[in-house]
Every structure is written in C-alpha cells, then in structure tokens.
Write a structure and sequence with these properties.
The protein contains eight helices and eight strands; from the N terminus they run H-H-H-H-E-E-E-E-E-H-E-H-E-E-H-H. It is an alpha/beta fold. This is LRC43 protein.
C-alpha cells in the first residue's frame, strides 16, 4: 500500500464493516435513523423487527459463531471483533469518516508500509499505533496524533530519529524501536526528557548502538523510565554492561526482560561511579565443530617415508564478519 492510510483502507475492506451482517442494508433498514449507542441496554436486542429483517442479536450471532461464514478467524485482534460488533449495533458510528473518531488502537503488521502519512491525523482518539515488520525508515512526528501513548516500530528500517523527535506526542509512554538500523553516536541525543517526558518503556534492542556511556547519560534524564531493552546491540557485549545500567538508572525495574531485584541493585552499587571499567572492546571465541567437504588429512599421513609420490598440500582461510 505504501502509506499507513492506504493500509488502513485495505484493513477496512477486509473487515467488511459496510457489508452484511454489518452496516446498513435490507437486513436492518428500519434502524437506519435510529441512532443507537453500541452500549444500549440489552433489552434493545430483543425488540420486534419488521418481516424480512434481522434482530441485532441474530446478526451478532452470525459474527460470533465460529462455523458462520461471516465469522472472523480465531487469531484476529480484539479490535477487529469490537469494530464488527459496533457495525451491527450502531452502524452509524462507523459510517464514512466517523470510523476515524472511534478507533483507539491501530495495528498494521507486515503490509509493506513505507510512509507514516498525515492521514493518521484523522484518528482523533488514537492511543496505540503498531507498525511492526514494515519498511519504514523515517517517521515525521507532525503526522502522529497527539493522543498517542504507544508507538511500536519494531522490525523496520529506521536509521534516524531526528524527524520523529521534531514534535513527538507528549503523552507517549512506550516507544518500540527494536530490530531497526539505529547506530550511535548521533542517535542518543534524541532519547532525553526534552522529547519523551512521560516515557515509561523503551525498546532499542537489536540495533547498532555502541556508546554505553553516552546512552546512559541521556537515558538518565527520562524520569519515568521503568522498562528498557538494549539486548542485541554491540554495547551489550561490554562485561559490566548490565551492572552499570542497573546502578546508573535507579528507577529502572526491568532490563532486557529481566526484573531488577534489590539484591542485584545492591550487588552493583557504586559501579556507575567507575566508568573506567567500561572498555569499548569485546572478546569473541569461535569454536569450529565440524567442517564438511574437505579432504581427510589422515589419508596423506599413510604415505611411506621416502615415497616418490607427489606431495599435495592444502591451505584454508576462514573469515568472520561482525
């Protein structure tokens, strides 16, 4: 689709909010002008309907029965089910552009999205935006609804945070940037209180961040940060990596999906005041277990001493790329 807006339109087509048993049609035409709320009293489901039409209860059963041809697959999201049921009980709420006013969570996964376009601003109540496994490299913060609390961009191609931090949503609580292409030292400056005053959870896993000292100095300004994921970055190879983070960020409660207990915090107490222990180097030991397709050296050791047979030697070069 290219853009988030285009992907959302495809999503609406998939849900069929305007098609039977949802939306308006001959199956519920007498309700066309009845502005019923989706939270109407249950008694409203049982009222009489004209011949040829279906009760809201019967229409809901067509959505919920797993054997129904109109049922959603079992692995669909709760929002998919909610929107479909609202489209039965109060289709006027989702008619036309009104659908943008009721959606609070939008999940568009692995749809080839490359652009976070300004069409997102039509979502006036959006709190959660999940765009994982797409092809997004830049995010213009001017196109993000100010109501956002969760922004997940895992498994994309984000390599720069400058556009995202130009005017980010002020109430954002979770920012997910795992499995992207962020590399220091220019990116750490965008991870401060000035941009994310209410951030509680931050995922930077599996990027190419290398400067632990600089990163910690910026993250220490995030006064509400309790959950941090940094595993998969080169800086996580530093021997004192976890202890330095635990002691440097006293409000942190979870690091790399592992809870920080009082015993661990006491164990690493004072390590934050010893930055000289952090070395920008790591040692990697590689063990070769088995090599296939090579001549067996034992075959050549069986030649008799003084044999005039040809002597064949082999040499090999093994290269590792990190």
């Amino acid at each position: 689709p290219g853009s988030v807006s285009a992907a959302f339109q495809e999503y609406l087509k998939h849900l069929g909010l305007q098609d039977f048993p949802c939306g308006f049609g001959s199956w519920n035409k007498s309700r066309l002008n009845a502005r019923r709320s989706p939270w109407a009293e249950p008694a409203g489901l049982e009222e009489d309907v004209p011949p040829g039409e279906e009760t809201p209860e019967a229409l809901l059963e067509l959505l919920r029965d797993q054997h129904s041809p109109w049922a959603l697959p079992p692995d669909c999201s709760p929002q998919d089910r909610l929107l479909r049921e609202v489209a039965v009980l109060a289709p006027e709420l989702l008619h036309g552009s009104r659908v943008f006013q009721v959606v609070k969570s939008l999940r568009i996964l692995d749809k080839g999205v490359e652009e976070v376009d300004e069409g997102l601003l039509r979502f006036q109540q959006l709190e959660e935006l999940i765009l994982s496994a797409n092809h997004i490299s830049r995010v213009n913060s001017a196109h993000l609804p100010r109501t956002l609390k969760v922004l997940e961009l895992c498994c994309n191609a984000v390599d720069d945070l400058q556009d995202l931090c130009a005017r980010p949503p002020p109430g954002l609580q979770h920012l997910g940037l795992g499995y992207n292409q962020l590399c220091g030292p220019s990116q750490e400056k965008h991870l401060t209180m000035d941009f994310w005053p209410n951030l509680v959870s931050l995922d930077l896993s599996f990027n190419s961040l290398t400067d632990l000292l600089e990163l910690v100095s910026q993250l220490s300004t995030l006064k509400n940060l309790h959950i941090l994921v940094l595993q998969g970055n080169p800086l996580a190879l530093i021997p004192t990596y976890r202890g330095f983070l635990v002691d440097s960020l006293p409000k942190l409660s979870v690091l790399d999906d592992v809870h920080i207990g009082p015993e661990e915090r006491q164990q690493f107490h004072g390590l934050a005041r010893q930055p000289e222990l952090i070395r920008s180097e790591a040692q990697v030991v590689v063990s070769i277990g088995e090599m296939k397709g090579l001549p067996n050296p034992e075959d050549f050791q069986q030649l008799e001493v003084g044999s005039e047979g040809p002597v064949i030697t082999y040499s090999y070069c093994v290269t590792y790329e990190f």
